[in-house]
Amino acid sequence: MKGSFFRGTTHVCDYKYQKSFDNWLRRLVHPPQKVLGGWVKPGMTVIDAGCGIGYFSLGMAGLVGPGGKVISVDLQDGALAKLEQRAEKSGLDSIIETYKCEADTLGPLPKADFALAFWMVHETPDAGNFFKELHSALNRNSYMLFTEPPFHISKKRFEEEINLAEQAGFRFLGQPKIRFCKSALFERP
Ligand SMILES: C[S@@+](CC[C@H](N)C(=O)[O-])C[C@H]1O[C@@H](n2cnc3c(N)ncnc32)[C@H](O)[C@@H]1O
């Protein structure tokens, strides 16, 4: 797949570039407990949609613990392979399950209690369908958080994405402050 850092011919962030933002510095900028600890609890099953090489999959595996599950979904085989390596190295491989999807569909996923889509909605060809699929993968009374990179996703585009999530059945709860992100939190009623 031909790609680049965020922008590219396919608009998909190539997994080979992801070490430039999935590294030790990210743990200072986006500590998983601080960013997600309000919604991700021990024993939960959670989805990391567009997980890439797995920064938040690994982080959420730590939060859900051995009694929970992280469903990590991406369309790049290379990203999932890298995540599997990292999960094994960190002893988190029994918690993380990887799923290869296609650009236009996440495919069938196990039911979950929380879904994260971090810096990836703008890469999907049909954000409306993406949110519908995420909605059906979630249990009632669960939460969904999506974030977008702050600079190249305009306010208007971000608001359009929020509208699409609402049209898919999510209830908008607000915009939690997360560094280097436009973010939106929803309930799946
Ligand atoms: C900018 S990276 C972010 C990776 C990760 N979420 C993070 O925060 O480090 C975006 C990821 O979304 C994935 N992606 C893009 N379009 C997708 C789609 N339609 N379905 C699933 N994953 C997708 C890409 O393959 C890429 O790994």
**What structural class do helix, strand and pairing data support?**
alpha/beta
Unreliable residue stretches: 1-9
Please indicate the count of domains. 1
CATH architecture: 3-Layer(aba) Sandwich
Q: Main beta sheet, described? A: 7 strands, mixed
Strand arrangement, major sheet: 3-2-1-4-5-7-6
Give every kind of bound small molecule, once each: S-adenosylmethionine
What fraction, in percent, of the residue positions are helical?
25-40%
Q: What share of residues are in beta strands?
A: 15-25%
Please state the oligomeric state of the protein chains shown.
single chain
Order of helices and strands: HHEHEHEEHEHEE
Principal-axes shape call? globular
Q: C-alpha Rg, in Å?
A: 15 Å
- Would you count the extended β strands for me? 7
Mean pLDDT: 94
Distance between the termini: 37 Å
Helix segment count? 6
CATH superfamily: Vaccinia Virus protein VP39
CATH class: Alpha Beta
Could you tell me the CATH topology label: Rossmann fold
Explained architecture:
The structure is a single chain. The chain has 189 residues and is an alpha/beta fold. The protein has a single domain (30-188), classed as Vaccinia Virus protein VP39 (Rossmann fold). It is 31% helix and 24% strand. It has 6 helices and 7 strands. A 7-stranded mixed β-sheet has the order 3-2-1-4-5-7-6, with helices on both faces. Helix 5 crosses helix 6. The chain is globular and about 40 Å long. The model is unreliable at 1-9 (pLDDT under 50). It binds S-adenosylmethionine. S-adenosylmethionine binds at residues 12-13, 15, 22, 49-52, 55-56, 73-76, 79, 101, 103, 118-120, 123-124.
